[in-house]
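Narrative of accomplishments. A recurring question from our advisory board has been how the design workflow behaves on a single, concrete structure rather than in aggregate. To address it, we present the structure tokens for one chain from the evaluation set, followed by the sequence designed for it. No filtering or post-editing was applied between the two.
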């Protein structure tokens, strides 16, 4: 191999290592299992509970989509979208640490003189108003059915909808 060939090979190898290191540094960190709280999907074990969880999150999104145009989506942001509903659960007791529903939206304005489009982003993370020590099993039972958005939360007189009013 010539001197130029060795230099090119060294540069290519160095560049490949640099790109690999950069890609690795931007990757999501591995989930830590050292703490007592996990995602609901990691806590639930029975098929019935897993089906109840995913059915509930699907129904929440559907309930929100049904009312968005008449409530939260009438103002500056007319395209609010539900991104994800997520809860943290104590891995031993099943007690919920917190639940959050994440939403995003945008408002676009066209500049007539230039044709440029200005975009204003909206982003919300709405906490569910759950009383302390609520378990995931209690939440799943309380929100079972077609209208979980309006169901009374366990140990409370509030609903997830009430939490959205406070947030959006």
């Amino acid at each position: 191999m010539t001197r130029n060939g060795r230099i090119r090979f060294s540069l290519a190898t160095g560049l490949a290592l640099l790109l690999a290191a950069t890609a690795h540094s931007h990757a999501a960190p591995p989930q830590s299992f050292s703490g007592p709280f996990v995602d609901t999907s990691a806590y639930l074990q029975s098929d019935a509970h897993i089906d109840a969880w995913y059915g509930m999150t699907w129904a929440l999104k559907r309930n929100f989509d049904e009312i968005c145009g008449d409530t939260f989506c009438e103002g500056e942001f007319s395209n609010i979208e539900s991104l994800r509903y997520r809860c943290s659960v104590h891995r031993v007791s099943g007690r919920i640490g917190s639940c959050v529903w994440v939403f995003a939206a945008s408002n676009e304005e066209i500049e007539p003189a230039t044709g440029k489009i200005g975009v204003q982003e909206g982003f919300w993370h709405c906490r569910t108003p759950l009383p302390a020590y609520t378990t995931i099993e209690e939440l799943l039972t309380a929100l079972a059915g077609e209208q979980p958005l309006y169901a009374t939360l366990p140990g409370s007189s509030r609903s997830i909808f009430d939490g959205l009013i406070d947030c959006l």
